[in-house]
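To assess whether the prediction recovers the assembly geometry, we first specified each molecular entity separately, as shown.
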Amino acid sequence: MRIRDRFAKTEARVAPYAFISPFFIVFAIFGLFPLIYTAWVSLHDWSLLAGDQGYVGFANYRELFHDSDFWRALTNTVGIFLLATIPQLILATVLAQVLNARLRARTFWRMGVLLPNVTSVAAVGIIFGLIFSRDYGVVNWGLGHLGVNPIDWQGHRWSSWFAISVMVDWRWTGYNALILLASLQSVPKELYEAARIDGASAWRQFWSITVPMLRPTIIFVSIVATIGGIQLFTEPLLFGSGVNAISGGNSGQYQTVAMYLVQQAFTGQRFGYASTVAWVLFLIIAVFAVINVALLRRIKSVE
Amino acid sequence: MKTKNPLLYVGLIATLIFSAGPIYFMLVMASRTNNEIVSLPPPFWVGGKLSSNVNRVFDNPDVLFRDALLNSLIVALVATVCVVLTSSLAGFAFAKLKFRGRNAMLLFVIGTMMVPVQLGLIPLYMLMTKLGLSGGLESVTLPFIVAGFGVFMMRQFAEQAIPDEMIEAARVDGASTFRIFFSIVFPALRPAAAVLGLLTFMERWNDFLWPFLTLDAEHPTVQVALSRLSSGYYSDQSLIMAGTLVGTLPLVVVFIVFGRQIIGGIMEGGLKA
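The predicted structure of the complete assembly is given in tokenized form:
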């Protein structure tokens, strides 16, 4: 009896650690270690095939700083990110407000807005590549009726940024609207009742109640969008076609930093340099996340 | 009272057309010949070539589409089962068991959700090569058998779904913690486990960057096979579209059957964050 008691006591003490250890062990090996080791590799001349060619200090970072291809990729990434994220957040907030009304067939509408998110990113890139095709795409065909000459969407910087932003927004706006809707449903209905009695318009209610009440969720959604957006890879990769898609257009007009990273690592076989790109990208994400929070904190709360 | 504002419904219908349109477009293009795809005006109705295009996808020797579907299924299922199990175990421990360092470790778990670990892909590639797993399905499965999001989600659910008295009573009866987990806790976690399973399955089925980098020509997943279809020297649009349709269909079916649960899971997840 006593041995059994002691066994039970030990078991109760060890069990919690046994329960949480699978997560921590696997994450340490396949998540945390690779991320940290990236910083180490970035300080080396490291080749995909030949391995470590020696410590080079910050030489990779100095090279990156003067690498115009990297700066172009960074401009593309930030450009597409802003072009996609700002309209997306606004649309998602409006859509959340609409979905929060007492609607018939609620689940049907919610499934409707989430449908694009079920489609894989690869599929999105392929489908929109055809929709934005220069010679026989639906978009150019439609614009033709408005008297606009066919646009070579892949060919120019702004047009490719626009098309890629449309893909991102198509896939994510509804998803974010649902998250915002969840938070909207926790807003007390009396606030809106009171505003209506005071004669506030729907627009006024939206800006004075909805947006401030949603602030924490908007911050969360925009940080997630930042983490994803700065690492944008698949949509631009599959938007271009052919074997050299990784270069993001003839003059890299829509190559993102993540694409440049992969190109340096696997086409250029420069693991050390590509790790530098990865680590810098990591820092950029951190900076953008901080800017995001700082900006969105300025939305005033409900008085 | 249901809203009568027609403007809302007009807006919703426009949103629906925008969100379902490209998927319908994919179906139309997958059912047409290449000549029809490049004709103007573009076709707007489903044509008669769907089954022959789909057969061409499966018969294409370069992309191994049949294998790809099976591979995606295996990878996604293994990851789903593992994530649900490991997350339930850890989530339960964080919610209901007392141990030293609990809060700090939970904070760490939440932190992992905000860190872009995908950026570690170069060392991950080196690690997989060293382990001799590079190129095979293990390399795209192993890193994803746990998920910080899952742990957090199960913790939040366990917190309110399992009364402390239930665990105390079982302990008094002499049940071990493992026994308590499998006979009391896990059954009670089932609703959340199902949602987590659905979300994990969809995420793994759609995963692209890492599989694209690591998988060899003999072991494609669906998404990798799609990118190979579309990056060929010649572009056979009806073939590409048929492949995209076949690769997307399984998830659309899952979504239509379990839509309510999936939406619930996403909304819960956002609320708790």
